[in-house]
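User: I'm preparing a small set of examples for a lab meeting where we compare how different chains pack in three dimensions. I only have the primary sequence for this one, and I'd like the structure in token form so I can line it up with the others. Please keep the answer compact; I'll paste it straight into my notes.
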Amino acid sequence: MKSTSELATYRQLFDNMVHDIELLLEELPAEALLWKPFEHSPWRGPAGSLGWLIAHAISSTYYLLRRAEWMMGRLEWNAVDGDEGSEEFGPANHDPAYLLARARRMQTYVHQFLDSLSPQDLEASRPHPFEPERILTARYDIQHAFEHMSRHIGHAELTRQLWALQAAKAS
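Assistant: Understood. Below is the structure token output for the 171-residue chain.
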């Protein structure tokens, strides 16, 4: 029987999103990762490329889960970062196979992280190091990680559909 615990639910949510990334990247040519549906919008400014959306979904997951680890006292604040730091969408990420491998590495990290937690770990909290009036909690950052990832995967799914439409019109 499948576990229905909070941590098992988080694992399933993250696994579902990695599967969504696999579908996004399936049979996708590398040039599609650099494609944007538009350069600038009067509402909220520039568009992100398809590849940037996927890379950011992965990077922000690491960042938010590492921030949860910091709250639990497992990491120093200077270790709270995405998996590729400022190279979040560096040239290596212009390759669908690389992004897929990166998503699978993230899935392994998420599993290891969640497997290391106890229900009490979810209650960890600390004041933000630069904004002490903001209290950060581990549970919130874990939930925020999959919410943020889900949002960017949704953007990426729509962007991939738009890319497919324009590619079909061009041929």
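A couple of notes for your slides: The chain has a mean pLDDT of 94. The chain has one domain: 6-32+47-170.

User: Perfect, thanks.
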